[in-house]
Amino acid sequence: MDVLNAIVLFGNFVGVPAIAYGSQLALGALGVTLVYGILRFSNFAHGEIMSFGAMVAILVMWVLQAAGIGISPLPTVLLALPAAIVGTIALVLIVDRLVFRYYRVKRSPPVILLIASTGVMFVVNGLIRFIIGPTDQRVDDGTRFIMKVRAFKEATGLNEGLAIKTSQVISLTAAVACVVLLFWFLNKTKTGKSMRAYSDNEDLALLSGVNPDRVVTFAWILAGTLAALAGTLYGLDKVYKPFTYLQLLLPIFASAIVGGIGSPVGAIVGGFVIAFSEVMVTYAYKKFLGYILVADWAPVGLAQFLGTDYKFAVSFMILVVVLLVRPTGIFAGKTL
Amino acid sequence: MKTRYAIALAAATSFATTAAFAEDIKIGVFLGFTGPIESTVANMAPGAELAIKEVSDSGKLLGGKKVVAVRGDTTCIDSAVATAAAERLITSDGVKAIVGGDCSGVTTAALKNVAKPNGIVMISPSATSPALSTIEDNGLFFRTAPSDARQGVIVADILKENGIKSIAVTYTNNDYGKGLADAIASNFKKAGGTVTINAPHEDGKGDYTAEVGALAAAGGDMLVVAGYVDQGGRGVVQAAVDTGAFDRFYFPDGMVSPALVTNHGADLNGSIGANPGTNSPGAATFVDMAKKAGFTSGPFSPESYDAAALILLAMQAAGSSESGKLKDKVMEVANAPGEKIYPGQLAKALEIIAGGGDVDYVGASAVELIGSGESSGNYRQVKYENGKEVVVGYR
To answer: Do residues B280 and B252 lie in contact, with contact meaning Cβ atoms separated by under 8 Å?
Structure first.
C-alpha cells in the first residue's frame, strides 16, 4: 500500500507534469533543430514565435467564444489552432523575407544570423505587447481535468491522489502525432528527402537539382507549425503569459543541444531528458521517502537536491556537461 | 493616441505646478504610478489629493495658505528611479513634505538618500516592512499602514483560533514578502504552532507545480500564501488546488481581493484570511467621498488620505509648513486626547487647532500611531464559503 502511495505521489508531482512539460519542450526543440539543420543558425526568436502563435490562437478563441462555438469538453483554443498555425507561418515567412534572406544570400556566418534572430526576438516581443498586452490570459475552458485528486482517492482508497489535466493529455497526444507526421514527411516525401539532402550537404544537394528556396520555405513552414503548437499547448497547460516564452528559450535550446542539434530524434529525447531532470532535481522527496522507507528512516528535512528557483540552472548544468563531455549531443546531430 | 494624451496631461500638470504661486505649500505625492502596483496607486493618489484639496479649499491652513499636490513616481521596485524622483520633488519642486512612498524597498531608499539628508517628512500609506520600524529617520518617517510585524501577531491569533497546528508558508521573493512571511512564521511558532516550510516563489512564471511540490512534501494543515494576487500568489494557489497538495489556505494582505474569488471560486471554500481594513465610521464616509470625487476607495486609499491629512494638520499645529517643525506634531494630532476627526472634517480640525484646541485624528483608516510613528493596524478578517468572501469581523 505504501509503495503504491509513493508511486502515485511521484506520478502526481513528477511524472505527469514532467511528461506534459517534456512534450512541450520537445515540440519547441524540434522547431529549433529544423531551423538549425536547414538554415544553419540558432534561432533565438523561436520562443517569441511560440508566444506569437499562442497569441493568435487566443485571439481566434475569443472570436469563437463570442460566437458561441465550442467543442466542450475539449478547450475551445484547439479549434483556433489551424488559424494560429497559418498566422505563425505567415509571420516566419515574412520575417525570413525581410531579415534572414538578406544574410542567407550574402552567405553571412551563422553568428550574424544568430544576432539578427535576437533582434527579431525583440521586435516580435514588442509586437505581442502591442497586440495583446503584457497581462495573463486564461485559455483553459472546457473540462480542465480528466482525473481529479479527490475522485482518484475515493476510487482507489489511497492516501495520495493523482490529477491528470486535459491539457496534459492533449500535449502528449499532439507531440506524438507531430513527431510521427514529421518523420513520415522527412523520410517518405520528395520534399522531405530534398530537405534532408540539403541539410546533409548543401552544395551537393544544389547540384542534384534541389530547389533551395523551396527547401527553406518548407523548413520555415514546419518550424512555424511546431512553434504555434508548442506555444499554444504551453499556454493551455499553464497560463498564457506573453513573456514566459523568453524563459522557455533556455530549456528548449538545452533540449535540442543535449539531444544533438539538427537531429529530430535528439530533440524529442532531449526535451524529455531536460523536463525530467528539472522536475526531479528540484522535487522534495521527504514524503516519497517516508512511504518507501522504514518509519524511523524517514528524513527530517525536505530531501530536496536544489531549491525550485534553480530549475533553469539545471538546464544550464546539463547543457554545460553535455558540451564538455559529448559536444555533438546524444544523437550526433547536424543532419536531419 | 494614449501616449499623446499622456504627454498632454503631463504638460498640463507641469504647467499647473509652475503656475502655482510661490507662497503655495507643495506636498509630494510619491507613489508607484507605473510598475507592479499601478492599478492600486490609481486609487491611492486621488485619496491623498482629496485631503490636500479639502484643506486648500477650506482656506484655514496657516491663515489661508493654498496647498498643491506634486506627483512623483516611485515605480514600486526601482530604487534608483525612486531616489531620483524624490530628489526632484524636494530640490526642484520644493515640496514641504511627502505622502509616500508606497513599496517598502523604494521607500527605504528615498528616505535614506533624499528625505533624511534634506530633513523632509515622509508619511507612507502602504510601506509595511518591519525593517522600517527601526530605521534611522531623525523622526521624519511615519506610516499610516501597520508594520507586518503586527500582522504576524494577528495571523498567528487567527490561525490558532481556527485550530490550525501546522502551516506551510510561501512568499513572493522580495523585501515585502520575506518580511511578512518571517513575521507570520515567528509569531506562529511563538504561539506553539509548527512551520513546516517557509519558501519563496518568484513572480512572473508560467508554472508553479515544482514550488507546490516542495510545499506539499513538507505538508501542513494550511498553506499561507504571502504573494501578489495577480502574480505568483495566483499561480501557487492554482497549482496547489490542481495537484491536491493543499485545499485550505490562509491569505494575508493584498491576497484578499475580489480577483482571488474570481480566479478560484469554490476551490477556496474553508480558507481564511485578513487584510487591512476597519469598520470605523470614517471608513464608510470615505467610500462616499471617494465616489463623489470620481474614484473608488481601494486598498490603501483611506491610508493615503490619512497620510496627507496628518501632514497638513501637523503643519497647522506647528504653525509652520517646515518639515523640521511639523515632524514633532504628527504624533500629537494623530492620537488622543482631543476631539475625534473623521474624513471630511479637516476644516473643523484646522479651526480647533488654530484656536489652541487638541484633535485626535481618526480619519478613514482609524489611525492610531504607535512606536516610532506607525499605525497600530486594523484588520478585516474573512473566510470563504460557497465560493464567496464573507467578513467574519474586525480586529
So the answer is: no
DSSP B256: S
Interchain CB contact of B205 with A (< 8 Å): yes
Beta strand B166-172 with B222-226 is parallel
Q: Is-contact A229 A82, C-beta < 8 A? A: no
Q: What pLDDT does residue B6 have?
A: 52
A301 interface with B at CB cutoff 8 Å: no
Q: Could you tell me if B376 and B295 are in contact, meaning their C-beta atoms sit under 8 angstroms apart?
A: no
Q: How many CA atoms lie within 13 A of A91 on its CB side?
A: 29
Q: Note whether B242 contacts A: Cβ–Cβ < 8 A.
A: yes
Task: Please tell me if residue A151 touches chain B, with a CB cutoff of 8 Å.
Answer: no
The residues that bridge with B383 in the sheet, in sequence order, are B272, B390
Place of cell 531616489: B83
> What is the grid cell recorded at B13?
500638470
pLDDT band at B5 (very low <50, low <70, confident <90, very high): low
Read off the C-alpha cell for B139.
523622526
Q: Rounded distance, CA A56 to CA A229, Å?
A: 11
Of A13, A21, A148, the CB nearest to B216: A13
Mutate: best of A159, A238, A244, A314, partner B, most B CBs <10 A: A238
Identify the DSSP state of A275.
Answer: H
* Mean pLDDT, residues A116-136: 90
Closest CA to B104 of B79, B69, B67: B79
Q: Which of A161, A239, A284 sits opposite B213 (nearest CB)?
A: A284
Give chain A's length. 336
Q: Would you call B385 an interface residue with chain A, using a CB distance cutoff of 8 Å?
A: no
Residue of chain A minimizing CA distance to B220:
A287
- Average pLDDT over chain B, rounded to an integer: 87
Cell 506539499, residue located: B216
Where, residue-wise, is CATH 3.40.50.2300 in chain B? Answer: 2-148+280-366, 149-278+377-394
Q: Please tell me the class of the A2-325 domain.
A: mainly alpha
Would the ipTM clear 0.85, i.e. be above it?
Answer: no
Instruction: Write out the three cell numbers for B282.
Output: 470614517
Buried b (16+ CB within 10 A) or exposed e, B353-368: beeeeebbbbbbbbbb
Among A residues 40-79, those touching chain B with beta carbons less than 8 Å apart: none
Are residues B175 and B105 in contact, defined by beta-carbon separation less than 8 angstroms?
yes
Show me where the domains of chain A are located. 2-325
- Confirm if A58 and A65 have CB atoms less than 8 A apart: no
- Give the length of chain B: 395
CA A3, chain centre distance (Å): 32
Which pLDDT value is given to residue B20?
A: 44
Judging contacts by C-beta atoms under 8 Å, the chain A residues touching residue B243 are 12-13, 149, 163
First to last CA, chain A: 47
Task: Give domain B149-278+377-394's CATH architecture.
Answer: 3-Layer(aba) Sandwich (3.40)
A86-116 as b/e, with b when 16 or more CB fall inside 10 Å? bbbbebbeebbeebbeebbeeeeeeeebeeb
* Nearest alpha-carbon partner for A288 in A27, A3, A84, A18: A3
DSSP code for B161: H
User: Which superfamily is assigned to B2-148+280-366 in CATH?
Assistant: Response regulator (3.40.50.2300)
Chain B positions touching A244 (Cβ under 8 A) are 204-206
**Model pLDDT for residues A50-91, shown as the tens digit of each residue:** 999 999 999 999 999 888 888 878 888 889 999 999 999 999
Chain B residues close to A165, C-beta within 8 Å:
242
CA distances from B309 to B27, B48, B53, B55, B110 (A): 11, 8, 10, 8, 21
Burial of residue B46 (number of CB atoms within 10 Å: 0-12, 13-18, 19+): buried
The cell numbers describing A61, all together, are: 478563441
